[in-house]
Structure formats: structure tokens, C-alpha cells
Design a protein that fits this description.
The structure holds two protein chains of two kinds. By secondary structure, chain A is mainly beta. Chain A has five helices and 38 strands. In chain A, β23 and β24 form a beta hairpin. Chain B is built from seven helices and no strands. The chains are: A mainly beta, B mainly alpha.
Amino acid sequence: MKLFDGTLAARLFVGLGCALISLIAWSAEAPPFRNTEEAEDGQWLMPAKDYANTRFSGLKEITADNVKNLEVAWTFSSGVNRGQEAAPLVVGDTMYVVTPYPNILYALDLNKSGAVKWKYEPKPAAAAQGVACCDVVCRGAVYSNNRVFFNTLDGNVCAVNTKDGKEAWKTKIGDINIGETITMAPVVINGKVISGNSGGEFGVRGWIQALNVDDGKVAWKAYNTGPDSECLIDENFKPFYPQDKGKDLGVTTWPPDKWKIGGGNVWGWISYDPELKLLYHGTGNPGVWNADLRPGDNKWTCGIFARDPDTGHARWYYQWSPHDLFDHDGVNESILVDLEIDGKPRQVLLHPERNGYLYVMDRKTGEVLSATPFIRITASKGVDLKSGQLIPNEEKEPHTGKVIRDVTPISPGAKDWQPSAFSPRTKLMYFPNQTMSMDYEGTEASYIVGTPFVGVNEKMYADPVDPGDGSRGAFTAWDPVAKKRVWRIKESFPVWSGAMVTAGDVVFYGTMEGWFKAINAKTAEELWKFKTGSGIIGQPVTYKGPDGKQYVAILSGVGGWAGAVVAGGLDPNDGTAALGFANAMKDLPNVTTKGGTLYVFKLRDGGEKK
Amino acid sequence: MAIKQRKLELGVLVASLALVTSCKREDRPFQTSAPSAEAIQFTRMTDFRAGGPSISGNQPSPAMSADETPEEKEFEENAYMVGEGKRLFSAFNCVGCHAHGGGGMGPALIDDQWIYGHEPAQIFCTIIEGRPNGMPSFGGKIPSFQVWQLASYVRSLGGLVPGDAAPGRDDDMHGGPPENSAPNQKPNDSSLPKSAEMPK
């Protein structure tokens, strides 16, 4: 009897051990819904760190006290001197870095200071460079189940085996001949890799699609303009506000057939709530910027969809900017957190929108709980929380042949693609943003397949009022419950890098001059900075190396829309260059040059330098 | 008396000045025909030649750095042609990529760098044939006559056409000084851009 008990105990023990091991193995495979200090595994499996898009790391070897001892551990040249917007991934003892066009994927050995294990070259079509609106960027790869997935500029989704760098499959889902590119980082949800297209400046009809991770076959595809059947809208679609209810609004809110070239692209961030079984994605600007040429609300552009990740079917939708006037794409990240709002616990999403408002929404229903300006706004007069409608400012409504001055936010928005972070410790959001204004004029536009469909002249400049000191960007800490800014660090140029925050209460970001900075997440105190070789527009990550130490990594290499003046070698004597961004960036070539280098930092051995 | 003399002198000076400046006006022929296809047939991309500069064998000598043909010259000395080129530059969405010459998705055209050559025939070819790093081919889509008009306007952005033919004002918001005050640059026909480099 006793013996039997012992065997049972042993069996139980072994069984428990197996379960534990498989649990550990499983946890290496899938990122958590929302990362915590307890859940931290020291890896970085997707650009946003977790499905909730917090970009919070539970690592805390590096703290506000010792971050001043950070030093370079090793570097790696990507060999591509264009805008580096990607987040490096860390899985076990390997780092994965994907470059801008020509989209080379490197596997780097963390045991050997980043020695190349293998590289994978998808060789995208060179002509893709000519239809990439805002530099030839790639926003990163994603890891799942022994494979790395990423998108190429010319519209392919690649699945690469981590073991040897061999291609598992490659599926072409975009067509550069109609102006379609892919720049976003995909996400993997329940065995499907999910991506969307870019091309809002080419009259490309926006979509999001899911491919099976095993074979790359398309599982579902949802358009964001056109009839309900193609937008995967059915009887289970329950938007919160009446303006989003009705049949085929993706057709009826457009002039005849204009939805076919109507934009609404998906090139930003996707978040996912496994409990509610909903993924959240924004939709880009409507096709042809000049709004005179497309009367109507232009659904489902400039909004947010909640969809079932298994089928793609829409559950709710909300439109940030109906009948968008200024290229205010709605694709920014939505961070999924649970907060106490007005004394009640709510499942919310936090969305710093290009139109200048910080939206707090009920992520179950799509109800807007608050929408607070986080920069000076002249383009609109607020958000009516009762109707959910953006209140337009007629004074600033552009028309063909009419120049409107001092419009803010600018076309790239109060904040563009550059992703924010949320710390469960401080309960604050940290976001990089722009503080700029613009002159804007509508012009005639002809639709010619494969060429830009814009119809706007534009010139941007530093916001003359707030802050009014010539600075064009800021790094902001925001309290979403109190609906107010906690602090703001002004920067000369737009802060085009992402943010990352750690359990050591340090928040990281980079500047377009090339400074990589560590800031005290509570006090805004600058704790440490390092000058990299080129301007930074990448996404910082942190991980635990094979030696058990905490590392911080960032790609340096200026570019993107804001840095096109350097990356593309543009001539800022024409202020309308780079769709008007060059006007505000005339001094950028004086402070930085092209680059493409990964920097990895760790704390100096033995602490402070004597 | 002396003052009167002075005034007279000044008057003569002003009058002659006005005469001199007014003399500089566009001289437009009644009929301007587009350069022939011959002009574009032998456009080379490089001055670097195997076997040295001399031509041997039965192949024709493609002239890259040679002067423009008389037709090309006449074409871009004609303000109407350049002005039409400016209108078409917007109508065919060139402006979407190259902005008003500063560039964007495509390279700048107001600087001195000409990746695929600055001669009218070379620009004509670039528009018709397209280029590998993203310039689409417009061949078969735009009448040749209009392509020549576009080429002359593209050259005006770099100050390569006479100031009296280049456009002097805009109907829309413009990013920089007008084309007719573009500094006359020394064009630099550089080589093809490396892969992963957007054409500059």
C-alpha cells in the first residue's frame, strides 16, 4: 500500500513535471495576453510584446537607479541604409532582425554577440520602392511555433523556419501594380498569421487577411470598403452608434463606385483579447486625400473594427474621422487594459488617435468613454460623447483651390504609427508624438492605376502655439483615467520611434538626431542617453540574454515619412516634398545621415565606472 | 542745367534699361514640332565605354553628352510647351511622387543629380520606359508630344531651360521658388542607384 502510494506520488510528480515543462515550452510559443512582472519570460516574440500591445517588460535588473551604467554590448549592421522601424525579436538565444526593403531577415546568435546564424532574403521586386508612400520601411516580424513570419514590401507573407532559415512558405497577397505594398508587422492569432495592405496614397482598397500558419493558404479576407459581404459584416455586427448601423454602408457612404478606390488600409497595429475573442485593427485614410472628391462618411475608413480572429467577421466598428479631411489614418495601436473608470471596472482599449484625441473605449461594445485632446487641435472641436461623432471645425475645412492655414493635427497626425507603451506599475501610457501644424490645399486628382491618388498640396511646420518654441515632437506620459497629461518631454524633431517601458520603471525611446534615451517613468527625469550612428525611428525592446543579464536593443537608421528627406535624399527647397513633411524637416540633413545599425546595451560589469 | 542734364541722362538710362530687359522675351515660332523618334533611339546611360571612346564596327555612335537636337532646343524654348508640361506633371500624378520637384516616393528633380540622365531624350525615355527602382513606365499611355512637354518641364525644375520659357507663377500653393528662378545647375548624371537605395 505504501509502495503503491509512493509510485502514485512519483507518477504524479513526473506527470506534474511534464505538465510544467510543456507549460514552459508553450509559454515560449505564445505571447501573453497582457504581460506582467510574473508572466515575464525574458523574450520578445512580437513587436508589441503582448496581444494587449503594452510593450511592457517585467524585467527589472535595469532600474531607474542603475540605468546610467548602460553601455554597448554589441552592434550589428543590417546592411540597409533606410528607415529602420522594426522591433528586433528575441526567442531563446536567438535574435531576429528584419530590414526595410529588400526585407532581409537575420538570425543573430546571442551567445556570440550577435554573430549571424543565417539570413533569409525574399528578394522583393525593386519596383515596390516606387509605390511605398513613406519610405521603404518594415515594422517587424513575429515569432510563432518555430517560425518567423513577416511581410515584404512587394506584398508577400513569408514564413521562415527558425532552425535553418529555410522558407516554409511564401504567399503573395498584395499587388504593387495597383500601388499595394505591405509595411506592417503581422500578428499570429490561433494558428493564423494576419496582415493588411498599405496603399492609401494610391487609391488601393484596404483589406485585412488571415493565412494559415501551416501552409500559407488564405483563411479569410475582409475589405474595409464595399458591400457588407466583402467586409465580412453579418447579423452579428453590433456597432454601438446608430451612424454605423445599416446595410452596405461601405457602398452607400461613397459617391458611386468610389469605394473601389477608397483606401481604408490596414498597416498599423493589431491587438487581441483572447477572453472576448476579438481582434482590434484600425483602418487607414480614404482614397484620394482631397475630400471634395468623395462626399459622404466614406465607411469603413479612419475607424476601428473589432473582428472575430477565426473568421474575420466584424463585431463592432467605430469611426474616428468620418469623411476624413486630412489623411488622418485610424491605424494607431489600441492598448487593451482593465481600468476603473468613474468608479467602475471597465475592459477598455486606449487609443492615441492621429486626429489628436486619446480615446478610451469599452472594448466589448465599442462605446467611447472619453476622448481627450493630447495636443492643440484646430481641425475639429471635440468629440460628442453622446453621439460618438467628431465635431468638425468648418473654418478649417479644406477645398479644391483653397489654402487653409494652421491646421493641426498635421496629416501624419498628432501621433502616427510610432507605438506607445503602458506600464501596469504606473498605470500611465507613454507615447511619442508630433507637435506640428500645416497649410493644406485641395487640388484636382486623376486616378491612374499604380500612381499616387492624393490631390493635395501641403506644407508642415512646428506648431506655432503649443509649444510654440520650434520643437516639433514630444514624448508624453498620459493618465487615461484622469484624462490628463502627466508630463511631456519636448524634442526638436517628431519622436518617430516607438516606446518601451520596464518593471524597473524606465521608459525608452529614440530621437531623430540619433539619441537613445532612458527616462524615469514616474518623474520624466532623463537618466541616460547614447548617441547612435543615425536617427532612431525603431522600436526598443528588452530581453534576458543567455547569460541571465537584461539587455536593451534598438535599431538606428533614420527614415520613415518624417525622415524621408534624409533616407530618400529629397530636396527640402521644395517644402511640399515628402507630401509636405520636408518643409518641417529642412534641418534634419544637418544633424543625421542614413544608417541601419542595431545597438544592444547592457549594464556595465562591476557597476559604475571608477 | 546740370541737374536737368542729370535727369535726362537718368531717363535715357532707365529707358535703355527697360529696352534691354524687354528685349529678353520669348521668341516663339509659329509651329513647333516634337523631336523625332531618332533622337531617342540611341540614348545611352553611361559615358564609360568598353574599348575606349572611339567607335568601331558598324554600330552607330550614340551621343549622350552631345548637345540637344535643334528640335529639342526649340521645344523647350517655347513657354507654352513648358507650361503644358507643368499642367501635365500634375494631371499624370508625377507630382504625387516627385512633389513640386523636391521628391517624395520618387527622387528630387530640382537638385543636380540625374540618375538616368538630364538630356531631354533621356528624360523622355525614363518616362516612356520606366526605371527599375519604382518609376512606372508610361509608354503607350501618354502621347509622345505630351511626353516631350513633360520632359521640358522636368528640365525647367532644374533650371535647364531658358528663364523666359520656364513657368513663373503657380496657381496653387507651391513649395519653393518658381521654376524660372531655379538656379542653372551643373547637371550630374550619376550612375544607377545601388539596390535598396531609392533613386535619388
